[in-house]
Amino acid sequence: MKISKIEIKDFHQFKDFSIDLTYPKGHAKEGQPLDKVCFIGQSGTGKTTLLELIPYHLYEYETNIIKKIDDQLLSKNTNFNIVYGHDYENSFNVYFKWQFDDELKRDYLSWIWGGSKNNKEDITHDQALEILDGWWLKEVATKLIYFPSSLDYDLNIEINLDINNDKIIDFSFQKVANVWNLILDNIQKYQEAELQIRQEIAKTVEKSSNNLETIQKALKKLEDWKNTEFNPIQDVADNCLDRLLANFKLKVKTELDIKTKDDIGFIKVEDYHKNEIPNGLWSTGTKQVILSALPLYLLKPKHTVILFDEPERSLYPDLQRTIVDYYSSLADDCQFFYATHSPIIASSFDPWEIVELKFNEEGKIYREVYYEGENHIDNYKWNPKLMRWDDILQRVFDLQDDGSPLRREKLNELATYNVRYRKLEQKGEQDQSEAKEIIRNIEKLSKELSSWN
């Protein structure tokens, strides 16, 4: 399931707002819904609001922001065009409207799926749920996943809590660490089997302490078992976390001393010298990496929508450069929506994947497009993937200045020295002490201002 278009007639700061979320002409996927979308814009332009409108339209699920909104506002034609199917053969326009209940004698807000490609008429709420729950969610897709800007960093998991009980997986309310429950049973079974083999080895050694060949056979049994048995912790380490933790010179501790399920805590981490790092000493960045990547790997999302608000939080720039592509690698044909203030995150997107939100003179939001004329891949003015970070800041994020006020002050000072030196040069006084002092100041300032180059 993916979103191909959002239309908002009148909702908060959005008025007559429309964004097309399909690939432009000239693209290999022309007309298909985008695989990933990046919302950028000044604070207050509605990036998070757009993110949280998505689960409401797809599943009638109320996130934190939606819970605080007057229902009357939602009825003013906030329309989402939804497509689903293996070849996106099904399409519906989803919106809300007020209807009258004859029995209760009151109005109520109704969730409507309007006909599109294959349906001429509106379908009811119950029919929509039958389509979603009866086929798409049960047989093909997984639940929508929402990562808010402030993840719950509590690493104490609630044992036996089924994270799949909710309508969607919303980490505004769920602890991210609770996804660990998805493999607790597998970890327990693996550890119990290993303990049993080790106990057999101990008995063999006790009974045949002088028979080296028998002891070697017992040890070989453990080695063979480890080589053939699926190790859930090793799997998480090899296929999910270690390549990210390498940025912190850390790795998953795969040899765990666990005797019962009650002994199992959250994932353990160690340095390259096998020194375990207690959870309480993890950096915020380490927690962010683990608590955002692990759910995607364990939940195995497919054919669904995944929302990330401010994915750059607590991440050093080198990780920001790779995190978007890494998240995509953990999902199967999902549509990602990001809201960000980071030019480095934005550099992971093609220009047609970026939705820049701006205020017009009336304080309403519009999308600034990066193409001229027809929406064709060859008509875009710039591509963030090919730009320097400072170019992205100035062209895409509209940052007017190229540095701090002190930098501008020093640049003016440098310009003044250059003017003074040219005047002395014109007089033939470039060898005088005043000119030499100016040259020294110019060299000093130039080095300070250009030391990054």
What does this structure look like?
By secondary structure, the chain is α/β, with parallel strands linked by helices. The chain folds into three domains: 2-142 and 300-396, Rossmann fold (3-Layer(aba) Sandwich), CATH 3.40.50; 180-285, no CATH class; 405-450. The chain contains 13 helices and 15 strands. The strands form three sheets. A seven-stranded mixed sheet has the order 8-7-12-13-3-14-15, covered by helices on one side. Strands 2-1-4-5-6 form a five-stranded antiparallel sheet. A hairpin with a 4-residue loop joins strand 5 and strand 6.
Key structural traits:
453 residues, alpha/beta, Rossmann fold, 7-stranded mixed sheet, 5-stranded antiparallel sheet
Number of domains: 3
Structural class: alpha/beta
CATH class of the largest domain: Alpha Beta
Spatial order of the strands forming the largest sheet: 8-7-12-13-3-14-15
Strand content: 15-25%
Give me the CATH fold name of the largest domain.
Answer: Rossmann fold
Radius of gyration: 29 Å
End-to-end C-alpha gap: 46 Å
Average of the residue pLDDT scores: 86
Helix content: 25-40%
Q: What is the architecture of the largest domain at the second tier of CATH?
A: 3-Layer(aba) Sandwich
Biggest beta sheet summary: 7 strands, mixed
**Uncertain parts:** none
Question: Can you count the beta strands?
Answer: 15
Principal-axes shape call = flat
Give the count of helical stretches: 13
